[in-house]
Amino acid sequence: MSKKLEVEKLKAEIERLKKELKKRKKYGLVWEEKPEEVVEMCKEKLPVLKEVKNKEIITDKDKPVNLLIEGDNYHALSVLNYTHAKKVDVIYIDPPYNTGNKDFIFNDHYVDKEDAYRHSKWLSFMEKRLKLAKNLLKDTGMIFISIDNNEIAQLKLLMDHPDLFGENNFEYFVWKKKGGAGNTERIIGTLTEFILCYFKKKKPGIFNYRTLDRIYKFRDEIGPYNLEGIEKTNLGVYERKTMRFPIIDPKTKKKFYPAKNMRWTIGAINAKKAIREGRLFFDHKKKKVYIIKRPEQYENSENVFYNLLMNVGSLATAKDELYNFFDNREIFDTPKPSSLIRHLLEVSSRKNFIILDFFAGSGTTAQAVLELNKEDGGNRKFILCTNNENNICTDVCYPRIKKVIEGYKNLKGEDVKGLAGNLKYFKTDFVDYNEPTDKNKIKLTKQATEMLCVREETFEKVLDQKSFKIFRNANHYTGIIFDQTAIPVFKKAIKDIKGKFSVYVFSLGDETFDNEFKDIKQKIQLSPIPEAILRVYRRIFK
């Protein structure tokens, strides 16, 4: 081999190594990946949803439908990657803390404290689910994760990786969960837990959703607005002598001063600027000055929320809640109070948000969402996913949600009024699909009806025929055509129906049948099945 050729080969190898190094993690966690049975089974079986009809709860057809999915959350999240990609606003989860005290199950076995791969198993388990969960969040979305000292270091490094959320999108809360040390604590009594918060895209003022949903008392030619006082106490640590100055009404030239022992909350320069911009209102009768606040000013404000959560419930109040529902405080060792979850949603959610909890446990998140909706008239929807270990879904989570919605008698025999709401109960199921044959594609399409209804939020059946089905909600319709030869009959069936249609047509390839629907293309949106589902699953299960 010539010297020149050797040099060229060496250069090529150096370039190859450079590219390889760029692919490698420069900083972060390294752990031994542990195969997981629920993941491996998806190489031959594809998850779908099956509704449990007798567990449906409908109290108001005009209200949104909430979802409870029973099954392993890896499978539930896989389905949601098709039905709810980039639709979820807020995720809250309370995963197993991996304490070694029979709180974390991996491949059907509890992970013991002495397990040499304890942290690796937990990280393998969490990473797979967090990656699927991230795909569900909108670009404005966020995730809250409750955790304690056992895995917080590992979890933060995992979440900080750019493949997940990145360290620049991090915030956190500290929750005071109890008032004193436990019986097993001998050195330092642990009174707190952490709630890690990660955003898709963090920005100042991102927690101002409650202010955006406020009711406006006034309206002028510009639009709605509120009046907010600009006085604050001038005593003690709040004293600011320079903030007591006259503000002059430009129309009447009258001077306004803050009341005794009070001061303005804005300085002289900002006061003059607000006057020039017409943002101050002078009430001569009350001798008060107000600032005019419009929706865009609330949106651009940068409120700061404190991360120490001290009065939002405790372990004791959480156990009392469960006791009130089930006459049993020991259902969960470390439940979360609904007031804690409600507080997180108060600062992070608007009235029409979708909230996901894929470690739903006893159903606390559902209660928090329904309580918050009742409080502010919201239409938030929850999606809860939980397995049924020790019958936690069928005997605890679902009954609790049912009681919160419909009402129940507490331990004192008093009637507790229900908060109202609607619920659909699904189980994860599977379709054998070890290779992409025509037979398997037909099989998957036939089993995908509930998934498509969940995707479109259309649960009311309009027409049920062998070759096609039609469902609806208050806003639009969903058509599912299993046999393309039935397209003319389907078009005839929807001819006189007013409203928009999402139409799914079975295709062995990826054909959308645009030509067959060109005469009504303004009315429908076409998608081929099962290819659209398979594309998602190929990405997940590759």
> What class do helices, strands and sheet pairing give?
alpha/beta
Number of domains: 3
What is the CATH class name of the largest domain? Alpha Beta
CATH topology of the largest domain: Rossmann fold
**Percent of residues in β-strands:** 25-35%
> How many helix segments?
16
Q: Could you tell me the mean pLDDT? A: 91
| Number of extended strands | 28
Radius of gyration from the CA trace? Answer: 28 Å
Largest sheet: 11 strands, mixed
Uncertain stretches of 5 or more adjacent residues:
none
CATH architecture descriptor name of the largest domain: 3-Layer(aba) Sandwich
Helix content: 25-40%
Distance N to C terminus: 41 Å
Globular, elongated, flat, extended or rod-shaped: what is the shape?
globular
CATH superfamily of the largest domain: Vaccinia Virus protein VP39
Layout of strands and helices, then pairs:
Blueprint (H helix, E strand, L loop, with lengths): L2 H21 L13 H4 L4 E7 L5 E2 L6 E6 L2 H11 L4 E6 L11 E2 L2 E2 L7 H19 E11 L4 H9 L9 E7 L15 E8 L9 H4 L5 E2 L4 E6 L1 E3 L13 E2 L6 E2 L5 E3 L3 H9 L3 E4 L4 E6 L1 H5 L8 E2 L5 H12 L11 H11 L5 E4 L6 H13 L4 E6 L5 H15 E3 L5 E3 L4 E11 L5 H9 L2 H8 L3 E5 L3 E5 L3 E6 L5 H8 L5 E7 L17 E6 L1 H11 L1
Parallel strand pairs: 3-20, 3-23, 4-7, 4-19, 8-18, 19-20, 26-27, 27-28
Antiparallel strand pairs: 1-23, 2-23, 5-6, 7-9, 8-9, 10-11, 11-17, 12-15, 13-14, 16-17, 21-22, 24-25, 25-26
Helix pairs in contact: 3-4, 3-14, 10-11, 11-12
